[in-house]
Write a structure and sequence with these properties.
The structure is a homotetramer. Chain A is mainly α. Chain A contains twelve helices and no strands. Chains B and D meet through loops of B and loops of D. Chains A, B, C, D: GO terms for molecular function: voltage-gated potassium channel activity.
């Protein structure tokens, strides 16, 4: 029984470190985790630069093993300490945490056989997705993620709208410019040009050279710029509106029912109706 | 008489499938239509890529015939089932639906004669406008189309304003850079450059090379960026204002006059004045 | 005396045509003026294209004389009919209207002497400023011009702010990239690059090639993009606020004092206090 | 004692000139300072252009000494006249003012020894930071600086968000395009491309060439453009909200307690409660 109690205590302590970022140990753990993630991403990136990889291959490989083992320990610790392990395992961060560990183990087994290099490489690059572990620091509750979720439908309509526009404009430009030596060699490439232009990226790898092509693309740019202000405005308006419905809560607790998260301007508890202390 | 009744029933059923996207059959039809449109666009695009067209010409031709016949059947069905066929035929979607079918038929007749290839090609590319059939899925009633319609006047003024600015700036740059080997060979090309720059597309096919040209174009970019924030803000503000006047309606029907589309906060029917049930 | 009366009547008629766009004659005149301006601009542009100028020089020269005479007549008519000629002559449109006529006359005299070609060319290009005559159709009273005037101070601060940022960022990039063969040959050019980058134009004529240069310019782009959202937001907010204070006026005239421009929701005349007719 | 009084008077006068821009002498001083700063920046820039530096080296050197001495005098005067010298010295402008003088003095001593040219060059370029002295004219109290400070947290989250997105998108593009001859030679370079693309700068020095690469980057541009509207909207919304809470104050002083900065609509002094004179 004492054994169980110690165990429970130990698990409770670990849970505090892993999940509560505002306890002293939790803060230290989070800073360590943050640095490890960043280091891990930097190592994957350096590995992709041939000159660096050929010189420091052994060091990068060793560092990768250390990081993989650290992330594995973190994953196991999280599964053990959380109250509902299955819910965590199949959650967004659960999947990301698992994906952060397996590529290196799998590459170990795959090297033995005669597997294609491309698959192996894709697997190695999967480690970059560890950067999503940083998403913990953006926080689920921030305006950004909520705004993105709320505007999902509007963004889809926006993308569909721009895409339809680009297909039509790209085809028109293909008809005009395809005789010239200007990169408009097929409709898909012309649509690619239209997307590059309407989003104002403008690489310049494909650009109209004929007078008519430049005239029409001038018109496309002007119109596109003005038209795109509308959906951008819609998304902005959505965010502004969402901000308004956003009720500011304080950390005060009701003296009668201990309920928290009262509105900043609340005078009575929203839960029990008693007067809040001022 | 029973004949007529069956006929009417059959037409009603077809109408439900074609026009009511929230019935089970309607949903299946819509998914099918969506896939056919996308496939059709992809085929037109692939046909424009020489290497693919030379290899799969027969397959693409056959696929095009299948799609043309499917769209023809859809068009006929829509004309038969709709209550006011003429109104549909001359509506935006009626014209688009017709245009989606005729290019292939016309190309059949034109091939017989000795027609110019350019006309034939333009005709073939007309099939790309089928993508406008996708506009059905954006919906007439969305904020996007309404906002675009409402800001039409403002967008026109905006385009005129930027165009005037670009003509003047382009001419100034032509005066400065025309001696250099930098692409500013005529005023129209310089105006094209000004439009590419002010809309922040920036291909780089034409770029100032002289010190004075770079100085002035720096100034143009800074000023242009700041100035363009104003019309963009105006369009955004228009959208925000429009959103406010946007009354949310519900699907409730008045129990007295069966009128629908009441405001969400309505207590009395806007049509007959009787109390709505809660 | 009758002579004087006829004269006055004739002047009144002319004034109506020139200044009142909503009378039948005024409308016809405005459409004609609009077309003449556009034609004039197109001719100046075509003249700058060498191949076209060498072929159609005589036609373009003749057309230019016709347009110059038309604009001269318009200018004289405006000066005669307006009540305060001096006020018109020194107003924005008065100056523009005069500038639209003189270049051709001056070029006539200058050709006689041995003047530099550059001055002559600059003079010829001055004709492009005729496009400012189009500004009449944007209208003094539109939101756009008022918003631009109201945000003038904010736009100046914005430009100063971005300029300071660009000078510092350009110098840092010059320090890093100047050894490389990447176009960062002097600080002014590096500042030019910074402006091209921060305004998201991005020609690509100057682009970092060293790893450190690309790292720092990545950071500049990210930070710049996020930071520039703030002043853009300020200008937008200014426009939104201005729109709110924007009182909609109607064309109704008070039946007692004939005062115009009453608020749309006004019940009493703001000038004499009598009830307006409904 | 009279000595002390004169001294105090003289210091008071100097303080007025240096710190109070709305007194006549203060205005003259500020205009002079403004011109000196701009001249100083222009000289540093010209020095970086080899052809100009080799021709006018002696003039630029002399001008630099004059400016350095002027800025030194200004610094000393500011330290003497200000009430709390230490507070000024360690303030933002105190540090900038000091940094504006030392590079030239240091270069004088460093030239004597055998110091590396790079350090010397970096030091010389430090003089560009004098442009921050212009920040005085933007003013601490403007909306811009306050808005930037208020949105600092949001801008950080925004940068982190876009960075995570760019790392993932860059890695995906590296996997697809690395075989091609298109500049995607390593993950860091691909991430650099993703940042250049998502911020819509689009140099074109790295651009996808394979069909799949162009397809995916089209998708990245469309999605990126739509997604980035959300954080931009959030920052805008923040600015709009801040503007609302912005209380306009006037320059009126309370006749009872002399307190200033009352709200524009204040009727009673916020400090002593007495009625303000109208």
């Amino acid at each position: 029984m004492t054994q169980e109690k110690t165990n429970s205590k130990w698990r409770h302590k670990l849970h505090e470190i892993l999940y509560e970022a505002d306890t002293p140990y939790g803060r230290v753990f989070n800073i360590g985790l943050f640095i490890t993630i960043i280091a891990s991403i930097i190592f994957v990136m350096l590995e992709s630069i041939q000159s660096i990889d050929s010189q420091y291959h052994d060091f990068l490989n060793a560092a990768e093993w250390v990081i993989t083992i650290l992330f594995s320990l973190e994953y196991i610790a999280r599964v053990i300490t959380v109250k509902k392990p299955l819910k965590y395992i199949f959650s967004f961060f659960g999947v990301i945490d698992l994906l952060s560990t397996i590529p290196k183990y799998l590459s170990f087994f795959l090297v033995g056989g005669a597997h294609s290099l491309v698959a192996l490489r894709a697997l190695r690059l999967l480690r970059v997705f560890r950067i999503l572990k940083l998403a913990r620091y953006i926080g689920e509750s921030t305006n950004l993620t909520r705004a993105l979720k709320a505007s999902r439908a509007k963004i889809s309509v926006f993308i569909l709208f721009v895409f339809i526009l680009c297909v039509i404009l790209g085809t028109i430009m293909y008809l005009i410019e395809s005789g010239q030596d200007s990169g408009f060699t097929s409709i898909p490439r012309s649509v690619y040009w239209a997307i590059v232009t309407l989003t104002t990226v403008g690489y310049g790898d494909i650009a109209p050279v004929s007078a008519l092509g430049q005239l029409i693309s001038s018109f496309i740019m002007l119109m596109g710029y003005a038209i795109l202000a509308v959906p951008t405005g819609i998304v902005s308006a959505e965010v502004v509106r969402m901000n308004k419905h956003n009720v500011h809560t304080n950390t005060q607790a009701c003296p009668y029912c201990m309920e928290e998260k009262h509105r900043d301007d609340a005078e009575y508890c929203y839960s029990c109706g008693n007067k809040l202390n001022e």
